Amino acid sequence: MESRIERICVEHGLKMTGQRRVIARVLSEAEDHPDVEELYRRASALDGRISIATVYRTVRLLEERGILERRDFGGGRARYEPTEHGRHYHLIDIDTGRVIEFEGGEHERLMQQIAATLGFELVSTRLEIYGRRVQGVPRGAARGAEKLPGAVDTGKTRPPRRADAGPLARDAQLER
Amino acid sequence: MESRIERICVEHGLKMTGQRRVIARVLSEAEDHPDVEELYRRASALDGRISIATVYRTVRLLEERGILERRDFGGGRARYEPTEHGRHYHLIDIDTGRVIEFEGGEHERLMQQIAATLGFELVSTRLEIYGRRVQGVPRGAARGAEKLPGAVDTGKTRPPRRADAGPLARDAQLER
DNA sequence: TTAGGTGCAAAGAGTTTGCTCGTAT
DNA sequence: ATACGAGCAAACTCTTTGCACCTAA
Predict the structure, then answer these.
(1) Residue B176 pLDDT > 60, yes or no?
(2) Phi then psi for B99, rounded to 5 degrees?
(3) Which of A78, B5, B133, B134 would be B165's cystine partner, CB 3.0–4.6 Å?
(4) Over the stretch A148-165, which tens digit does the pLDDT of each residue have?
(5) pTM of the predicted structure, to 2 decimals
(6) pLDDT for residue A136
(7) Could B119 and A128 be called an inter-chain contact, meaning their C-beta atoms sit closer than 8 Å?
(8) What is each CA distance from A44 to A1, A33, A50, A79, B29, in whole angstroms?
(9) What is the dihedral of CA A156, A154, A124, B88, to 10 degrees?
């Protein structure tokens, strides 16, 4: 049956080829922030007749249509997530690459205010926290995560080739 | 005479070649957030015997030594600034690529708290605002920038080839 | 039928690196 | 003297693109 993103694509009047349907499904089912290679891997598993060029073209198309959002968590590869599953920000575990989402109402207000003060109209923002899981934390603190509304562990990523532009140390690796 | 960064390099026990001295000086005098090509351009103007490979190797070295900090404002090129001219964040003018720095005490407290709540030790953060200069703002608002302590226009960048990973629209161009 | 999508391989952009020669210490 | 740096070009990674062929609408 039709995946959520496939439906959105149709609504946008996109021609739905077999490849796009598969990619749309992979995206719909993703609960993490996969990069193109990972999307390609998952799509290929469902249908071998997909080339990575098509994945690149598709994510670009969907991004231009506002259906996907591109993220850059360092590591040199762009990562994607469906638009509009609520405004949120990311905490990246620098040891595992795991991404945890959190809300940032406070931050939004502040950034809005800062932009205005400097004479700018806020167009977009980037707010990420790179951290390391605290060891032997009295479970209380760890469970505290649940207290932050909207905090969700979005799952794992994959072993990167090389780190680069980003707040991560040069060889801090995403995931693994 | 010896530039600020050159002195720091010496203190770090780095072998100071002619090239490094020039690059150190360019960095010391930079008031913006130049990328490697720009550094190469400025260094070459002072001494033609510098290759871009050396610039890459040098910024990497200085980054590893904690003397420089790498930034990624989208656009696919890493940009650099000397470490420790105070903790600050950046507002990027998406029309011109200009970078304005601002302090974020409030944000820091919040991010620290969020990390702790989620059971993480905050290692580093990324907080950027991408905005567009407001037209015909009653001068008051524009001048407001001066009210934000530490707000500094760090100057211009250069015309990029292509935008990429980042909050900027795919063809939003940094500068010019 | 035909505008537009796909695969493949080549091209690009930014960055790194192997190798040989040069130089700061 | 020698360990380390520099220049040059080739290699790499991620992403885009030209072209011939294919397919959804």
Answers:
(1) no
(2) -115, 130
(3) A78
(4) 333 443 433 333 333 333
(5) 0.69
(6) 57
(7) no
(8) 19, 18, 6, 18, 51
(9) -70
Task: Give the number of other Cβ atoms within 10 Å of residue A11's Cβ.
Answer: 9
The residues of the protein lying within 7 Å (CB) of strand D read: A 15-18, 35-37, 52-53, 56-57, 60, 76-78, 160-162; B 14-15, 17, 19-20, 49-51, 53-54, 57-58, 162, 164-165
Q: For residue B150, what pLDDT is reported?
A: 36
Are B112 and B163 within 8 A, CB to CB?
Answer: no
User: Chain A contacts of B123, Cβ < 8 Å?
Assistant: 94, 130-132
A118/B128 CB distance under 8 A: no
Dihedral of CA B161/B164/B166/B167: which sign?
positive
| Model confidence pLDDT, tens digit, residues A3-12 | 999 999 998 9
The type of residue at A65 is R
Contacts of B133 in chain A (CB under 8 A): 119-121
- The distance in angstroms from the start CA to the end CA of chain B is 34
Residue A161, helix vs strand vs coil:
coil
For residue B91, the surrounding DSSP H or E stretch is strand B89-93
Does B69 have pLDDT greater than 70?
yes
Backbone dihedral angles phi then psi of residue A153, each to the nearest 5 degrees: -80, 120
Answer whether B83's CB lies under 8 Å from A116's CB: no
More confident residue, A142 or B34: B34
